[in-house]
Structures are given as C-alpha cells and as structure tokens.
C-alpha cells in the first residue's frame, strides 16, 4: 500500500465525462489498497472564462485580491463534482479548498508563495479510508484572504501536498504521456523519457519544456518528492522523475524497506517509484532537448572591462522587476579593454530592461545597447555533459551541418544552451535530436495543450 | 449618514451589465455618505447550471457536503466581479465569503441554520471607508466545512448581517418594486404597499407571497431589522417593512435621536426607515392578499372527539418530517362524539403524511382519511382583522358572489385564510381584492422571477 498524490489538469476534467474518467482512475488506484489524495485544476476553459468576465468589468487591470477570489471558484466546481463522481462509484470522498487543506501563503495575490502546508484534514480523511480532493492553485494568507499561486500553481499544490503528506509519489496527469526527448510537435520521432533525474527535469523546465512548471519541479527537488508524469488517457507508465531521497525516506511507513523496483504483478500500474542511480553515471546520458521561443536578447556593447560592470547591468534590469534567463560575458580581447555583456529575458520585458540599462550609459560609459526580439534557445540536457567535451563538439557540429549560426553559448553541469535566430530553431532541434540518436521508431502521440 | 445592507438577487447580477448597474447604485449610496455592506446571490442561472452539472454526475442524489461546496462557487464569482466593478468606479471594495464574513452555521448541509454571526472583517472594512460585499446563501460550520442556507438563503444572510452590524435598514433589491396587495400576475390592478408591519409581512410570506422568504422575515422580526423591498431597476421607494425597534435602537450610533421620517432633500433616495406606528391601528387596515397553490389537504374523518386525538394526528405527520401549514378542527356536533381533523401541507408531502396517519387508524379508531391535492389557499392579511368581524363578512360575501366555495377557514390576529378548490383561486383573489378596494388605477409592472 502506498500514499499517492494524483494531480489532474484542466484538460483532464474538462467536462462531466472527463470527470467521470478521472473518478474511475482514482477509484481504481484506491481499490488497489492505496491512499489517494487528488489535486484538481479548474475545468477546461473555466479560468479563461472567469478572466474574460473580469476583463469585461475591469478593462485596465482587475484588482488582484478580487481576481483571486474570482478564479478560485473554478477549482471549487471541479473538485466538488469530482468528489460526487467518486462517491457515485462507491468510494467515500471529500473535497477541500486551499484553506481547508492548509495551504498557507503570503499575501502576494496572483503569485502567492507557499509559507506552510498543514494538511491535517487531508491526512485525517485518508486515514478514515476516504479519498481527499484538494483544490489546486489556491491558498489562504495569514489574514485569511484567498490567494492563488500563479502559473503552474496546481502542480505546485500537488508537489507541496505530497511533500507534507510524505507521499510515496506525486503523479502528474496530463495530456501527454510523459517527458519527451524533444517537443514532439517539432520532432515527430521524439521518444518518451522513462526515467530522468530531478535536476535534469529542472533544466528542461527552466529552458522551455512546458509539461511541468519550473516552480513545481524546484519544490519537488527541495522536498525530495518523486514525480511520475503520465497521461490521463492511458494506463501506460509515463516518465519517472527521480530524486535522491534522504535515507529515512527509503524506509516505508511500516518500517519495512522500500522494495527495489516495481511490483511484478502489476506492471502497468506501478505506484511506487523505481530506485534511482541504478545506471553508471560516468558516461554522458542525454535526457533530451528543450527549446524556448519566448525570449529576447539584450547586448550592452563596449562595456569597460572593470569590476562591477556586470553587476551594474544586472542590477539595473533586476530593479525594474525583470527576471533574467541567461547572462553571458566573454573575456575582453580588445586593446581598449572593452567587453560585451549579453542577457536573455522574457520578450515582454525587453522594453523595460533596455530602458533600465540605457540609464546606466552615462555612468558606466558603454557604447550602445542592442535589443533582439524573437531569438531561439536550444538546450541539451543530460548527466555528465561538462566533463565530456565530445557532447558539445557533436552538438555544435550538428548545428553547423544544419547551417544554424550560434549567437551565444551557456553551459551548466548538465546542460548546454545555445541562442540562435528564432527562424532556425526548429531545424536546430531536429538536427541535434538526430545527432544524439534520440529518434524513436514511432511517432509520438500529442493531444494538445496542457492545463494550468 | 446611515449604515445600509443592500441585497441583490440573481436577476440583479445576471450579467456584466447588470453587475455594473448594481455597482453604480452601491457607489451612489456610498457617495451620499453612507456605509454600505452588500449581499449578493449567484449570477442569474449559475445555480441552476451548477445543479445541472451535479445532477449529471450524481443522478440519484448528489452528496450534500459536496453540493454545498459546488454551489458556493456561484456567489464567489458574482461578489468578486461586483467588487471589481465598484473599484472601477473609484470606490474601494472588498468581497468576503460566508466564512470570512463570520456566518457560522450548524452542519446541516443544504439547509444550514445560522448559529452566530461575527462580521468583524466586514465592520472593519466599512470603518475603513470601503464597501464590503458578502456572499449570500453561504456559511461555515464549526468544523470549517462550507454550508449553504437553503432557499431564501441570501435574504437571510442580508438580514442576519444587518442585525449583527446594527444596520439602519436592510434593502432587498428585486425585480419587483415592492410588496403588492395581491400577485400582480393574477390581479393586474394590484397596488404597491408602501408600508407594512413585519408581522403582516410574515403572514404574507407564510401564506404564499413570494418576494421575501419566510425565514428572512422571521429573522428580521426577531432582530428588529427594518426592511426596504425595492426594485433594482428604478430609484423609486418600494415597500418599507417596519419593526417595533427596541428603545436603544432609536438612538443613532452617534448618540443623537433617529430623525422622524425621511430627509426632505432626497425624497427618492430615502435610506433611513420611516417611523412605524404613525397611523391609528384601531381600524382594520388591509395590507394585501396572499395566495398559495402548492398545498394539499388531508382530512381524518370521524375521529373520536377525545383529548389527545389531534395531538396524535399531528404527531404522526411531524414524525415523518412533514411540516404542516394549517390545522383545523371544528367542534364536535355529531351525536356519536365524532369530529373531523383537517390539515394542509406541501403537496409533495401528501403521500407520506397520509401513510403516517393511516397507521393510527387502528389505535385511534377514525373512519377514514381523505387526501385532496391541488387545493387553493387565499389569505387576507392586515391589522385588526380579528376584532372586526365586518372584514370576514365582507371577504366571505365577495367569495360567495364570485361563486367560490369555502372548504376550510383559519384565522389569526392579522390574517384570515380560506381553502378553496384550486381552480377557483384566481377568481377568488380578484374578487376579494376588489371588495376591499385595493385596486390601483394603473396596472403593476412585473419583470419576471426572483433570485434565490
């Protein structure tokens, strides 16, 4: 018996029939002897419809507190209906709002941060043999105002709940059957990743892979929550995202050791995560390719190469509330001791960031600021990349063969990112995917967009 | 300056335009220097749509706790949008759920009773110069579950909030411009009642008048909350429902005496209730005629006329959870000492009540039980009816002239009710209305159904 958190996005509960299917899955999991806590998003387009109503009433900018009050109606509907559907199948179920489930946040309406998670009522409900259903995306502030967690909020709710309940696994149900070696819409032969470390997933999410929200992955990493990303339309296993669990967590709640691998009697219904670290980690293992089309690039040209110059540029951008994606500064090779500082950032923030940097021009004395919208970013993610120069060599070679010019390069221990012209990006993804022999024999199945 | 609670039903907030109109009215009231707390129902058909979803998922009977969770999403949407619309007009506004507004109830999902009302946050919001918006219809149980107050719940919320805030008046906005001397759909010349006592309103509501829910009127009477029932489509005064306020309440919050009557400078925007009891109460004053088509009638025939017989019959009906409308037992005139006991009750409960009474047949030894569905009840309501036999005389005379047979009669201090064949009821209402010269010169304006 395991304790599972199952998260279903908006597309998984889009209508009454979809809710019934989710109920069947939850009941099946419950009837196999597991404790199941479910996290749901709002039904299908509910959030967009509510946002549209808000926009009609407040065309400029709806007040944040009231917008959160409005949007949280969405999960209230889906979770109550799901509880009813589960009870129809003969299993007791109770739904809980963010407040009732103990999702305590700060007061930042629309993008609240979790401060504490105290799911006492959820735990009591599971202990009583019922299914607990928790509203995703929502919390309550210290002064009892309703808050929402912002984009990716329901994933974050699920992971946070799994951490607080010490769940064996947090299953993220979506309309794709796992993480892929590349976006199947661009690389039809992309193959499903069966296992990946949480750090690699973090890099994938941070650099454009859209199935899991970065914030939820960060949360899962910090609290060592194993994730299982899988399709709500099939029983097939999806992608296991494995974490280095603290030793104590390897003990099951009854004191016995966690079994190695999965239960052979239920190969299609594995609920407990496989053990990580089974394969030797010395050879580089490519997990996949992430790409991102949402960025712009700013270059401050001819910056005096002296201590503090980069800090000033970055500080100026940060002071206007813009989050920076990559920062690249090469060594100064010019006789005049000048360098260029480039950074990538969300395209929508380009104008504000450029203005902030321009204000430094007099003090810092750089030559010019250049802004490029519509850049593309391709990131190769895998274990042991930095210690294996062959990987970068093969990657850059593949790009050269595909006649893709590399504008910037940035690397981490487990990631190599390049900036290209956005028009070259899809060709670049396909070329690198093929170069690393990631192509599967069959084409991937894609169902559409994902929920919040 | 006064403190007002304004309640808007579902038809008053049916769409974004309607919400904007409500916002304008609230802001106008606020800008005249009043403190305004607003209670809203769900938008238009939202509740029916949510009920329909629940019915699809749980065709038998949706679980009560989850149904309440579901339905309360409705007010969450309307109140957040209304708060936004008010802020758009430059007035600060905050919305509150039943829980946030301190609406504490018992655990009876779907028909919860208020146990305590502690609107501390609402009072703080008003003190800060903001408009407070409270979700009608909903509360929270001691164990922090979401509850709903059942039919008429939003009216009850408004009256309870007004009582707890010691508001000067609770304004009930609806799609009719007040209480009428009879249902304008049956008597087109029915005239609007300008002032009526709470006791008469109670009789009207209990005997079929549909604008105000009985429970809200009972609450208003117990806590001496003056009500003003008026149209959300016009600025005209509606019907003032006046209560005998405790002496202390005649003092305003600043210690000055409540002014007699209304402010002469704003004849169309009176907010403080006129003083009750200005007119001599010795002559009978007919308030209006209520009618009810939802009842059935049970008669236990040939009941032995001995102590305890009526108690047994009533007890049997009560034991199956059926609420009784009228009970009539005439004096025994038969030689055998037999009498008939008749009672009226909601038509839907007829079968259960008949079965319960039949079980008594052996012990009590009555001859038969007769059930009549589709009866009609007409009630004449007004002050001083019992002490003026002329009223009953004129009423029964008018019915006789209209060839309406009277099947049962029941009276209270301020009401005379007769049971007729349901097919005669509308004729009966018109005949009595005319006999008491209640007809107005113009036809009444009727807009449609009312919200919850």
From TrEMBL, chains A, B:
<comment type="function">
    <text>Catalyzes the phosphorylation of the beta-carboxyl group of aspartic acid with ATP to yield 4-phospho-L-aspartate, which is involved in the branched biosynthetic pathway leading to the biosynthesis of amino acids lysine, threonine, isoleucine and methionine.</text>
</comment>
<dbReference type="GO" id="GO:0009088">
    <property type="term" value="P:threonine biosynthetic process"/>
</dbReference>
<dbReference type="InterPro" id="IPR054352">
    <property type="entry name" value="ACT_Aspartokinase"/>
</dbReference>
<dbReference type="GO" id="GO:0005524">
    <property type="term" value="F:ATP binding"/>
</dbReference>
<feature type="compositionally biased region" description="Basic and acidic residues">
    <location>
        <begin position="254"/>
        <end position="266"/>
    </location>
</feature>
<keyword id="KW-0808">Transferase</keyword>
<keyword id="KW-0028">Amino-acid biosynthesis</keyword>
<dbReference type="InterPro" id="IPR036393">
    <property type="entry name" value="AceGlu_kinase-like_sf"/>
</dbReference>
<feature type="domain" description="ACT">
    <location>
        <begin position="298"/>
        <end position="374"/>
    </location>
</feature>
<feature type="binding site">
    <location>
        <begin position="174"/>
        <end position="175"/>
    </location>
    <ligand>
        <name>ATP</name>
    </ligand>
</feature>
<dbReference type="GO" id="GO:0004072">
    <property type="term" value="F:aspartate kinase activity"/>
</dbReference>
<dbReference type="InterPro" id="IPR041740">
    <property type="entry name" value="AKii-LysC-BS"/>
</dbReference>
<dbReference type="InterPro" id="IPR045865">
    <property type="entry name" value="ACT-like_dom_sf"/>
</dbReference>
<comment type="pathway">
    <text>Amino-acid biosynthesis; L-lysine biosynthesis via DAP pathway; (S)-tetrahydrodipicolinate from L-aspartate: step 1/4.</text>
</comment>
<keyword id="KW-0067">ATP-binding</keyword>
<keyword id="KW-0547">Nucleotide-binding</keyword>
<feature type="binding site">
    <location>
        <begin position="7"/>
        <end position="10"/>
    </location>
    <ligand>
        <name>ATP</name>
    </ligand>
</feature>
<keyword id="KW-0418">Kinase</keyword>
<dbReference type="GO" id="GO:0009089">
    <property type="term" value="P:lysine biosynthetic process via diaminopimelate"/>
</dbReference>
<dbReference type="GO" id="GO:0009090">
    <property type="term" value="P:homoserine biosynthetic process"/>
</dbReference>
<dbReference type="InterPro" id="IPR001048">
    <property type="entry name" value="Asp/Glu/Uridylate_kinase"/>
</dbReference>
<comment type="similarity">
    <text>Belongs to the aspartokinase family.</text>
</comment>
<dbReference type="InterPro" id="IPR005260">
    <property type="entry name" value="Asp_kin_monofn"/>
</dbReference>
<dbReference type="Pfam" id="PF22468">
    <property type="entry name" value="ACT_9"/>
</dbReference>
<dbReference type="GO" id="GO:0019877">
    <property type="term" value="P:diaminopimelate biosynthetic process"/>
</dbReference>
<dbReference type="InterPro" id="IPR001341">
    <property type="entry name" value="Asp_kinase"/>
</dbReference>
<feature type="binding site">
    <location>
        <position position="75"/>
    </location>
    <ligand>
        <name>substrate</name>
    </ligand>
</feature>
<protein>
    <recommendedName>
        <fullName>Aspartokinase</fullName>
        <ecNumber>2.7.2.4</ecNumber>
    </recommendedName>
</protein>
<dbReference type="Pfam" id="PF00696">
    <property type="entry name" value="AA_kinase"/>
</dbReference>
<feature type="binding site">
    <location>
        <position position="180"/>
    </location>
    <ligand>
        <name>ATP</name>
    </ligand>
</feature>
<dbReference type="InterPro" id="IPR002912">
    <property type="entry name" value="ACT_dom"/>
</dbReference>
<keyword id="KW-0220">Diaminopimelate biosynthesis</keyword>
<dbReference type="InterPro" id="IPR018042">
    <property type="entry name" value="Aspartate_kinase_CS"/>
</dbReference>
<feature type="binding site">
    <location>
        <position position="47"/>
    </location>
    <ligand>
        <name>substrate</name>
    </ligand>
</feature>
<feature type="region of interest" description="Disordered">
    <location>
        <begin position="254"/>
        <end position="279"/>
    </location>
</feature>
<comment type="pathway">
    <text>Amino-acid biosynthesis; L-threonine biosynthesis; L-threonine from L-aspartate: step 1/5.</text>
</comment>
<feature type="domain" description="ACT">
    <location>
        <begin position="380"/>
        <end position="448"/>
    </location>
</feature>
<feature type="binding site">
    <location>
        <position position="185"/>
    </location>
    <ligand>
        <name>ATP</name>
    </ligand>
</feature>
<dbReference type="GO" id="GO:0005829">
    <property type="term" value="C:cytosol"/>
</dbReference>
<keyword id="KW-0457">Lysine biosynthesis</keyword>
